[in-house]
Design a protein that fits this description.
Shape: elongated
CATH topology of the largest domain: Nucleotidyltransferase, domain 5
CATH architecture of the largest domain: 2-Layer Sandwich
CATH class of the largest domain: Alpha Beta
Helix content: 40-55%
Number of domains: 3
Low-confidence stretches: 522-529, 532-536, 538-543
Structural class: alpha+beta
Length: 543
C-alpha cells in the first residue's frame, strides 16, 4: 500500500487514529497519531452502537489535528472476532477463497451466515509429498463489519480494508524482527500476547490474561498507593523488578504466573519444532515502561530477552516542540497498513458491483456516442464503397450464369442415376440363378446320389445328400468346387446306415452359396470329371 491512509482502531474507552503512509521500501511514515475518548455508549466490544456520536467524535479529532486523508483502514478490536489456523490444499486465490468459504462451518461452530470470513496465507508446506498451505482464517460478525462501513459513509471515507487487531499486531511484529526463530512477548495493560515466528512466518500465537496491571496492583497493595503512583513507580529504577523469583520480592513474584505461561508456550513450540529452537526473544511493552522486565525474563526463561522499545522502520510524527508520540500505543494502527486481511460484507460487494455496473454503462454510452459520430460523419463514403462492390459482384454473377444451368443438369442426371442404381440393387437376388444351380447339379451329380432335402434363401443353400459310398459323395462335393459361382462349401460330417438286407447308405448335409454363373468361366466337363475323380481318391485316402 503506497498511498496515504488513515487507520482507526476503536475500543470501549478510546479510539486511536493514525495518518500513515506505507511504501514499497518497507518503511512507514506516521504523519499524525491521535487518541480520543469514545463517547459513552458509542462502542461496546468493537461494535459501534451509536454511529452519529462516533462519527462526530472522529470528525472533530480529524479537524483538530489537520487530518484530511479520506482512504481509511479500520482495525477492529473485539472478543467476538474468532481466528483459527487451518491447513488447506495448495490452491490459487479464487479457488482458495471458495474452499475456505465452503468449509467455514467446520472451522467455526456458529451460524456462518452471520459472519464475514477473511483469511491470510501463512506459508506453503508439504505433508507426505502433498503440497498444502497454512492459512489463518478469521470470522467477524457481519453486523459489526457493516457498522464500520456505515461509519465510513457518514464521514465520507473510502474503506481500503477491514483488519483486526490480531493480524495487525502480527504484521507489525514481522516488521520488527529478522528471519531467525524468535519469540515476541507483547505486554499490554491487562494481557500479554506471546508470538513465535520462524523465517518471519507465524508458528504460534497465544494470549495470557496477565499484563502490566498485575505489577501495578501488586505495588498498590504493598505500598498502599494510588493507581497512577503505582504506574509511575513501575518505570522507576529504584522500584525495579528483581532479576529472579528466588530473591523473594512480592512485586516480582506477581509475574510468576505470566512467566510460567510463557515458559509453557516455549516448551510446547520446542517439542513440536525441535529442528528450529528459539534463538531470539523480545519484549514489547505498550505505553509506560516496566523497569527490569528484560533481566527477569532473561533469567527465568534462560534466553536473552531484548526490548523492542525502539521501533524499527517506523518514523513517528514530528514532535513540533511537544512530547514525542509513544508509537507502542499505536501498534495495531501501524500493523494494519502492512498486510491487512479484508473483511468485506455482502452489502459492500453488491455496492461495488452496482458502482462498477454504472461505470461500465457510462463507458458503453461514451463508446456508443463515438461510434454514432463516426457513422454520421462517414456514411457516404461507406455507402459508395458498398454500392461499387455490389455492382461488381452482380456483373460477375451475370457473366457466369451459364454455369448454373450446366450444374443443374448435372445434378438432375446424378439424381436419376442414383435412383436407377438403387432400384437395380434392390431388384437383384441370387435366387434368380437357382435354376442354373439346379441344372449344374443335374449335370454333375452321379445317378447313385440323390438330394433328399434342399432350402434356398438369396443364394444361401442347405442340402441333404444320400449315396452308396463316401467316395462317391466326396467326389461329387469336390467337383462342385470347380464352379467359381459356387462358394463357401461346407460339409460337417458323413453318416452311414445299413438296412436289414445289408445295403449301405451314406448321407451328409452341405451348405454353400451360389451367384450368377455368367460372371465366371467354368472349366470343361472333362477337366471337372478328372478333378472330381482325383478328389474322390484323395477323399478316400483321407478317410
Amino acid at each position: 500500500m503506497a498511498s496515504r491512509v488513515l487507520t482507526i482502531t476503536i475500543g470501549n474507552d478510546a479510539a486511536k487514529l493514525c495518518d500513515v503512509a506505507y511504501s514499497a521500501q518497507k518503511s512507514i511514515q506516521v504523519f499524525s497519531a491521535v487518541t480520543v475518548p469514545v463517547p459513552d455508549g458509542a462502542c461496546e466490544d468493537g461494535m459501534i452502537t451509536n454511529l452519529p456520536l462516533m462519527a462526530k467524535a472522529i470528525k472533530e479529532a480529524c479537524d483538530a489535528n489537520g487530518i484530511t486523508t479520506k482512504n481509511v483502514i479500520f482495525c477492529m478490536q473485539s472478543a467476538k472476532i474468532a481466528s483459527k489456523e487451518v491447513t488447506t490444499p495448495e490452491l490459487r486465490e479464487v479457488k482458495l477463497r471458495q474452499f475456505i468459504n465452503t468449509n467455514a462451518t467446520e472451522y467455526f461452530p456458529v451460524n456462518i451466515e452471520d459472519y464475514v470470513i477473511a483469511y491470510s496465507v501463512l506459508e506453503p508446506i508439504e505433508e507426505e509429498g502433498v503440497r498444502k498451505s497454512r492459512v489463518m482464517v478469521a470470522a467477524a460478525p457481519v453486523d459489526m463489519v457493516e457498522n464500520y462501513y456505515s461509519l465510513a459513509d457518514m464521514l465520507g471515507f473510502h474503506v481500503e480494508a477491514m483488519d483486526y487487531v490480531g493480524n495487525a499486531t502480527l504484521q507489525f511484529i514481522r516488521f520488527q524482527i529478522d528471519s531467525k526463530p524468535s519469540i515476541v512477548i507483547q505486554m499490554s495493560e491487562d494481557s500479554t500476547i506471546i508470538t513465535i515466528l520462524n523465517r518471519n512466518v507465524l508458528q504460534l500465537m497465544r494470549t495470557v490474561p496477565y499484563g502490566k496491571s498485575t505489577i501495578i496492583n501488586a505495588l498498590m497493595e504493598k505500598r498502599e498507593i494510588s493507581y497512577d503512583e503505582a504506574a509511575a513507580a513501575m518505570a522507576d529504577k529504584n522500584n525495579a523488578l528483581k532479576s529472579s523469583f528466588a530473591e523473594g520480592d512480592y512485586v516480582t513474584d506477581s509475574l510468576r504466573y505470566l512467566v510460567n505461561n510463557i515458559s509453557r508456550v516455549m516448551d510446547y513450540y520446542t517439542t513440536k519444532n525441535p529442528q528450529a529452537p528459539i534463538e531470539k526473544a523480545y519484549i514489547l511493552v505498550e505505553g509506560s515502561y516496566v523497569y527490569g522486565i528484560e533481566q527477569l525474563l532473561s533469567y527465568e526463561l534462560n534466553i536473552r530477552v531484548d526490548s523492542l522499545e525502539a521501533i524499527r522502520q517506523v518514523a513517528p510524527p514530528p514532535a513540533d516542540g511537544s512530547a514525542p508520540v509513544d508509537m507502542t500505543l499505536y501498534i495495531p494502527n501501524v500493523g494494519c497498513t502492512i498486510h491487512p486481511v479484508n473483511f468485506t460484507p455482502r452489502s459492500a460487494v453488491e455496492k461495488a458491483k452496482r458502482e462498477n455496473a454504472g461505470k461500465y454503462f457510462r463507458l458503453i454510452l461514451l463508446v456508443g456516442i463515438f461510434i454514432a459520430v463516426v457513422l454520421v460523419v462517414f456514411p457516404l463514403v461507406s455507402y459508395l464503397n458498398k454500392k461499387k462492390k455490389k455492382s461488381d459482384l452482380e456483373e460477375k454473377i451475370a457473366a457466369d450464369e451459364y454455369i448454373r444451368e450446366t450444374a443443374d443438369e448435372y445434378y438432375d442426371a446424378k439424381d436419376k442415376y442414383s435412383d436407377v442404381s438403387q432400384f437395380d440393387v434392390m431388384a437383384y437376388n441370387n435366387d434368380d440363378y437357382l435354376m442354373d444351380f439346379i441344372e449344374y447339379l443335374e449335370e454333375r451329380m452321379p445317378s447313385d446320389i440323390s438330394i433328399t432335402n434342399m432350402s434356398v434363401e438369396n443364394g444361401a443353400t442347405t442340402m441333404t445328400f444320400t449315396g452308396s459310398s463316401k467316395e462317391t459323395l466326396a467326389a461329387f462335393i469336390l467337383s462342385l468346387k470347380d464352379n467359381q459361382s459356387i462358394s463357401n462349401i461346407y460339409v460337417p460330417s458323413f453318416s452311414e446306415t445299413v438296412d436289414a438286407s445289408g445295403v449301405i447308405t451314406v448321407s451328409c448335409s452341405m451348405t454353400c452359396n451360389f451367384v450368377n454363373p455368367s460372371l465366371y468361366d467354368t472349366a470343361s466337363d472333362e477337366a471337372a470329371q478328372e478333378q472330381g475323380t482325383a478328389g474322390a481318391n484323395e477323399g478316400e485316402e483321407a478317410e
